[in-house]
C-alpha cells in the first residue's frame, strides 16, 4: 500500500497548494478568468499529475498514457454506460418541458463547454482516481468497496472548493456528495469491466458537459440541476452494480 500512500500524498500536496492560490490570488476564483485558469488547472490535475509522477518513477508512464487513450478491448456495454449522462440530461429536459434558452446552445458555446471541462475535470483526475487508486484498492477489497473508498476520497478532495467563491460552492455539500458517490460506483464498475481509462474520462466529461449544457440552456442553477438528476444517476449506479452482481 506504499504506492497508494504516495499517490494520496502527492495528490493532496499539489491540490492544496493550488486551492490556496485560488483563495489568495485576486480574480482566480473563476476558472474562466486569465488568472484563474492556470491555478485551477494545477488544482484539477492533482490526481493525474500524481499518477504521472509515480508512473514515471516506476517506468510505467507509457502504459498509463496508453490506458488513457486505449479503445481496444473495451466492451460495448462500457461505452454505453459512459454515454449515460446524455440520457440523464434528456430526463431533466423532459421533466422541465424543454430547454427555455435552447437558442444559446450554439456550436461554439458547446465546444467551449466541452474543451473547458475536458482540461479541468476528467483528464486531470481520472488517470489518478480510476487509473491508479481504483486498481490498487480493487486488488485488496474488490471493485465495489474500492469504489466507495475512492468516492469518499474524491468527495473529500473537492471540499476546499466550498471555502472559496467557486462554481461548485453553489451546490449543497450533501447533494454534491451524493452525486459523487453515485459517479464513483458507476466509474468503479467501468474500471472493473475494462482495462482502459478512456471510458471513465468520457463518462466524467459527459457528466460535466451535460451539467454545463443544462445551465446554459436555462434548466435552472447548478443546485436545481443536481437535485433533478440525483435519482437518475443513482438508478444507473444501482443498475450497473446489480448487473455486475448477477454476472459474478
Description:
There is one protein chain. Helices cover 77% and strands 0% of the residues. By secondary structure, the protein is mainly α. Helix 3 crosses helix 4 (61-69). The longest helix is centred in the middle third of the chain and has 37 residues, at 122-158. The mean pLDDT is 92.
Shape: globular
Fraction of residues in β-strands:
under 5%
Number of strands: 0
Query: What letter string, H or E per element, gives the SSE order?
Result: HHHHHHHHHHH
Q: Give the helix level as a range of percent.
A: over 70%
State the low-pLDDT regions, or none: none
Separation, N- and C-terminal Cα atoms:
26 Å
Instruction: Figure out the total of helices.
Output: 11
- Rg of Cα set: 18 Å
> Which class best fits the helix and strand makeup?
mainly alpha
**How can the largest sheet be summarized?**
none
Determine the mean pLDDT: 92
Any chance you could write out the topology, listing elements then pairs?
Elements: H1 2-24, H2 36-44, H3 46-58, H4 61-69, H5 76-82, H6 85-96, H7 107-120, H8 122-158, H9 173-193, H10 198-216, H11 222-247
List the main descriptive attributes of the protein structure presented here.
globular; 248 residues; single chain; mainly alpha
In a nutshell, what does this entry contain?
With 248 residues, the protein is mostly helical. 77% of the residues lie in helices and 0% in strands.
Amino acid at each position: 500500500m506504499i504506492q497508494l500512500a504516495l499517490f494520496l500524498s502527492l495528490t493532496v500536496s499539489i491540490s492544496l497548494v493550488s486551492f490556496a492560490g485560488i483563495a489568495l490570488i485576486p480574480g482566480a476564483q473563476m476558472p474562466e478568468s486569465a488568472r484563474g485558469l492556470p491555478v485551477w488547472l494545477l488544482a484539477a490535475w492533482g490526481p493525474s499529475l500524481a499518477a504521472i509522477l509515480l508512473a514515471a518513477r516506476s517506468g510505467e508512464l507509457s502504459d498509463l498514457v496508453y490506458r488513457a487513450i486505449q479503445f481496444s478491448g473495451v466492451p460495448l456495454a462500457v461505452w454505453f454506460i459512459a454515454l449515460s449522462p446524455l440520457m440523464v440530461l434528456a430526463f431533466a429536459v423532459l421533466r422541465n418541458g424543454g430547454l427555455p434558452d435552447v437558442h444559446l446552445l450554439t456550436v461554439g458555446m458547446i465546444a467551449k463547454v466541452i474543451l473547458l471541462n475536458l482540461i479541468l475535470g476528467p483528464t486531470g483526475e481520472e488517470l489518478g482516481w480510476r487509473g491508479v487508486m481504483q486498481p490498487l484498492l480493487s486488488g485488496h477489497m474488490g471493485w465495489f468497496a474500492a469504489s466507495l473508498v475512492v468516492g469518499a476520497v474524491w468527495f473529500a478532495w473537492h471540499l476546499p472548493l466550498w471555502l472559496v467563491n467557486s462554481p461548485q460552492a453553489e451546490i449543497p455539500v450533501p447533494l454534491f456528495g451524493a452525486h459523487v458517490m453515485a459517479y464513483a460506483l458507476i466509474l468503479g464498475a467501468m474500471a472493473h469491466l475494462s482495462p482502459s481509462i478512456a471510458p471513465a474520462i468520457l463518462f466524467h466529461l459527459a457528466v460535466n458537459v451535460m451539467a454545463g449544457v443544462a445551465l446554459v440552456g436555462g434548466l435552472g442553477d447548478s443546485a436545481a440541476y443536481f437535485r433533478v438528476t440525483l435519482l437518475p444517476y443513482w438508478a444507473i449506479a444501482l443498475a450497473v452494480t446489480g448487473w455486475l452482481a448477477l454476472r459474478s
